[in-house]
Fold:
Amino acid sequence: MSEQAKTPTVSGWTREEMAKRLALDIPNGSYVNLGIGIPELVTKFVPDGHTLVYHTENGLLGMGPSPEEGQGDPELINAGKRRVTANPGSAFFHHADSFSMIRGGHIDLCVLGAMQVSQGGDLANWSTGAPDAIPAVGGAMDLVAGVKSVYVITQHCTKHGEPKLVDSCTYPLTGLGVIDRIYTDLAVIDVSSDGFRLVELCPGIDFEYVQERTGAPLLPIQQ
Amino acid sequence: MINKQIASPSEAVRDVFDGATVMIGGFGEAGSPIELIHALIDQGATGLTVVSNNTGSGEVGLAALLKAGRVSKIICSFPRTANSTVFPELYRSGKTELELVPQGTLAERIRAGGAGIPGFYTPAAVGTPLAEGKESREFDGQEYLLERGLKADFAFIKGQKADTHGNVIYNKTARNFGPIMAMAAKVAIVQVSEVVEPGSIDPEIVVTPGIFMNRVVEVASPVYESELVSAGVSYP
Structure:
């Protein structure tokens, strides 16, 4: 952490700090698929000297940053349908090849947002199940089923203060037992075979504070 | 002599019949064959089953086809898009049926359909609401779902360049579903910015071999969905 971030505070990590913490854990040279939203911030914090190759499921490996407003090609976009660029060494491919990369276990890491994660690693992130909602799933179910490691980056609680880390998901599932690690504004938490296990606390936050905001038992940092 | 070039989009879609299954390429506006879709709206076929990743935006292209009431069912992975109001209304009123399919499963169903494979097992969607009613089987200790290959009567595709034999190259991420939909349709129709003579495209860089393509139509300056939506265009 930088010197500025050591200022005493009861608030947790910012979105940028969460993304920065996650970026530290990605091995150099990894092939990575980032979901829309907070996951996209990870690209800004990749440690110097590390190169990651970004996959976007609509058919590009080697995705680069978005071009200046009004620039770029309407047919060079990411999965969120925003214009992007293609880095040197990139490749285009069709959708069946793209999901062969995903389902075939060729992508090293996927980072997604979440509505809920259970202590068994189940993920719910595509639907609230509301009867009038238009169901839309995209590639999330394929990603969590096929990518080698799946990380979630999310606020620890909902806007209403309810835990997103729960004993069992109440929203419709995206995948069963698929999440490996969770990065929140309060902590880094592994989904272990025994349930949620603390890996690291945000500075200024203690174990009890996180446990109170988690809907299932939290195991202490493994010594 | 083989010459698959057709003079116009309207001629290329002339025989799409009521009740046909039509695969429509594109991911968002990238690769969306808008001129072919608009020609289909003009042509009038109805009761269609459409296979497409999205449901279009604004009131142009795929969204306009839906708005015109021509689509009775859509097989789709992400029918919710910014600026997409047409499909939500049709869905809520029960006028268009939705078969929601995970995106990778959708792609593989299309690929399998084109490759002569009637079904396959995938790990995607196991344990989720989309697994309901599907046959499952365990391989090496992991559960998989049986999914069926998908075929179509027609496919509408957007490419960058084609020769008159139907060999196609694409533009960047506009490739998306084009190559696999071409394989899965009885009649695959591609609109391209430029039609060239055989020999003009290096065989080493051909993406869709001509055997999968039936009709090639030149649309020299295709419009983009986002430009039409920003301009407030409503088709027709």
